[in-house]
Amino acid sequence: MSPVGPPPADGDADAHWLRRTVELSRLCPASDTAFSVGAVVVAADGAVLGEGYSRRDDPHDHAEEVALREVDTADPRLVGATLYSSLEPCSARASRPLACTGLILTTPVPRVVFAWREPALFVDCDGAERLAAAGRTVVERPDLAAGVREANAHLMV
């Protein structure tokens, strides 16, 4: 059975799930060329459909990619799910055909919540804008970004 937490629309559930993404980001193997990111896909009832972190299975893995890979694409709960990511989903990358924003847009996931807008350290990211332009609800919670910045302090020197 999948772990269960608060349903995404319930009170401070976004903070609960973003804290989980920060925990996951701390599991990332170190990298000087990529952010440490965690991601969780949560059904409307609070069931975890998938979760992951950057570089979990492959040095080029992004957190959202890993979390979505764990989800059964035929699962009807995706239409009401929320994807939580500690960092804004990327909109450009060299290591895969689709950036995380593009991967999310191949799913019916209607809502994306993240804590920290991607700094222009490696690429100019406009993932939040692309998701919103495609009709997805995008919620930024900068009040929860401190843990994400801490997990990536090695890059911000």
TrEMBL record:
GO terms (molecular function) for this protein are: 5-amino-6-(5-phosphoribosylamino)uracil reductase activity; diaminohydroxyphosphoribosylaminopyrimidine deaminase activity
Q: What does the UniProt keyword field contain?
A: Hydrolase, Oxidoreductase
Q: Which Gene3D superfamilies match?
A: Cytidine Deaminase, domain 2
Q: Where is the CMP/dCMP-type deaminase domain?
A: 12-138
Task: Tell me the leader sequence span.
Answer: none
What EC number(s) does the entry state? 1.1.1.193, 3.5.4.26
PANTHER family named among the record's database cross-references: CYTOSINE DEAMINASE FAMILY MEMBER (PTHR11079), RIBOFLAVIN BIOSYNTHESIS PROTEIN PYRD, CHLOROPLASTIC (PTHR11079:SF162)
| Name assigned to this protein | Diaminohydroxyphosphoribosylaminopyrimidine deaminase/5-amino-6-(5-phosphoribosylamino)uracil reductase
Q: Which organism is it from?
A: Nocardiopsis aegyptia
